[in-house]
Amino acid sequence: MLIVKIFNVKYNIIKNDPKKEFEAQELLNNIANVANSMKAFGGIAKGLKDPELFGRKEAMENYRQHEYEKAIKVYSELIKADASYNNAEYADSFLQLAAGHNLAGVKEYSKGRFEQAAKEFENAMCWLDTMKKSTGNYDEQRCSGLKAIYEENKNRTFEKKEKKLLLSVLCMSIRTSNPLERTSLRVFMNPLFLSFLLSQPITSSTHGCDLTISRYIESTNHVICQ
Description:
The chain is mainly alpha-helical.
């Protein structure tokens, strides 16, 4: 602030001199500019030392860079000090994480990795449940709609997984049975399943069995939601 004091001394000397009226006014403007700049820099320095202000900046940056788990962690700490930080970005971070797991589940499903897909859909629903426990600042209707989609995806994935296992067992049984035994299997199983299986060429190789399963799954494919 030394520069401001020097300007003030000079201003006090010339302010009453009519010949230096313009110079005095210009000097007064310089004093105001310097004082405002010093105040601004002081505020910045204070903000960098303020954990709450720095935390808010960190949370916003994490959210904008799609680092949603980091954003949730920082916002959670801020909310402990000030409930006003329980904002839309905090709630949306949970939704974005849930959507990411659902998309991962869809990709695993498309590759036939049903167990991994089911885990991803389960994780998606867990993030929605965690959001409900952590914040009241969310769209209930949207959340319910998303949960229904993720749950349906999970159920269909389990259905595919069980169907694939069942078909593996059936293929093994049919492969090792004689024609009469193959016919008797129809009594115990859904005819639609076996009519398809028995219409396919059965070989003694695992590869042939897998192809039969794949053709059946393709023929009964469900569409799951992203």
